[in-house]
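Blackboard transcription, Thursday session:
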Amino acid sequence: MVLELAKPRPIWQIMFSTHHTDIGLLYLISSLAFLFLGGSLALAIRIELFLPNVEGAGQIIADSMTFNRIFTVHGTTLIFLFIIPFASAVGNYFVPIMVRYKDMAYPKLNAIAFWMIPPAAALVWLGFADFTWYAQPPYSIISAPGPAADMWIFGLKILGVSSVLGAINFVVTILKCKHPDMSIGQVPLLAWSFLATSVIIIVAIPTFAAALLMLLTDRLGISGFFNPAMGGDPIAYSHLFWFTFHPEVYVLVIPAIGMMYEIIPRFSRKPIYSYNSGVFAFVMLSLVAFSSWAHHMFATGMSFTEKTVFMVGTLAAVPASAMHVFNFIATMWNGRIKFATPMMWAVGGIALFFAAGAGGVVNSAMPLDFSTHDSYWVVGHFHLFVMGTIAFGSIGYLYYMFPYVTGRMYNETAGKIHFFLSFVGTILVFFTQHVLGLYGMPRRVYDYPPIPEWIAMNQIASVGAMIIGISMAIFLVNMIYSSAKGKLADIHDPFGLGGKYYYPFEAKNPHH
Amino acid sequence: MSGHSNWPEWIYVAVVIALMAWVGAEAWEAERLIEHVPADAEVIKVTGQQWFWTFEHEDGTKEIGELHVEVGKAYKFEIMSKDVIHSFNIHDYVVLLDAVPGRVNVVWFAPDAVGEHDIQCREYCGLIHYNMRGTLYVEEPST
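(Written on the board underneath:)
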């Protein structure tokens, strides 16, 4: 493993490198930068919604257009510029080492995939589109102002190509470049999670890539695929979009679960309860990922049969997800658990994963979906996944890989405070938003009528968001300070778990 | 792989599958009943456009932003849109269906008590989406 700061190198050496840990580092730093940028937009949203606008009071953001742009870029940033690149960072660092290969299969392609992200991010941020992260036509065709909308479309197009290139690289690295002595049944579960995810990306993303082109030509007025005024059908876009982006949910969550599979056994000082069921559940999830996309569209006027099929397809994902939770609990059972910071994040993430999944069963049951659809329930539900599960797993893993990346230890107390504040904050924000949804508050609203229950719950959620904001500030200081001045880590056993626990990270690929 | 027996996991997976089957069956049964529109339901044409709702009763009277209905009668909403996608929602009666341009979506309800309820748009539709609201007045039968 490269100890990045123990042996400082000029930045251009890292930027023009094709070595997998250098590209991993670039992914890591850029994804964290976007975590903080996207997170600040979330705070702006929560501050605006702290009070309803009554006679000028409670109005922080000047107008609804600005607010709409903020939540659009918030979602786009955190999904495409934080979660996915963060997973790529972890994959770049660890997948080649786990399959015992000298680098990724195609190092130059790897660098190209990373360097597509900055221009795409610039397009998204400089444009600041307003049509939400799913750009639903006909709004996105006839109503959304350009050039913001067009810049968003090009930005997402580039990000799509980037993740397909990355996925191809992971699949080839794992299947073709693994050590000849290593069977596929010996590849660690983290690498398995990247294999499953990459296959989903390769199958799912092209559909959205096509839909984006059609959206662009519709906006230019030369086609009418999704424009009813020209004989098109906006629901066709919804199908194409969700055919990509429901599987994408698994693209986001599977690597986070893979990261937990690294953390949980090591800090429980026990082997994984069942490697085989972990692999089985990953494969199952990447199959059923494709059976449930239209559950996002129950309220578009689907027939009873369609709804039934997609409800069954959705419920089919539950047993596989539940197998992961079982595997984690059974691994921890009777283990000598060390609750260091990475373990706390992983266990917290599993708890919230369970809560998020249980809420998801409610959304997918047809009659209940009509109470929750497009309300704040949905906002709370998917944030429990993206924040509670994926960000928790990712941040836990960041603490875990910190000594290997920097050669130093982070501050353990600050890490634990970060966890406790984030955990409490996440529950305050997103559990409350579930209830707020049951009270009927729609999502994506700049303002709301002064209904006492709505005000109270919005305020609880805003306070929770502030708590998360404070915890993230502690996190940022801890990461920056510790990577420069933290105490040197014992690289053979940085967490003091005892020698016999194998860390894959002791392997090191030389620079080339 | 591992030497130990795995029966607790299989039992657990079976329980989860059984639970999901039960949830699915209940949902199927409930939705089947809910979607059955009564034959005598009065038709109200609902049109969404940026950013207000228009209602047209069977006798041709039109209302904008408010809707007056009578308690105890069944109503069938035929929902349309003039521009972008909206979502017609009376949350208190779990009435929710998208207004999609080029389509007519149908949902029904039967108010069971006199009162006032909020009507809102639940699908993002632009600038004033947050204030695309109306009021449902459920009144005593006129005769």
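Lecturer's comment: The radius of gyration of chain A is 22 Å.
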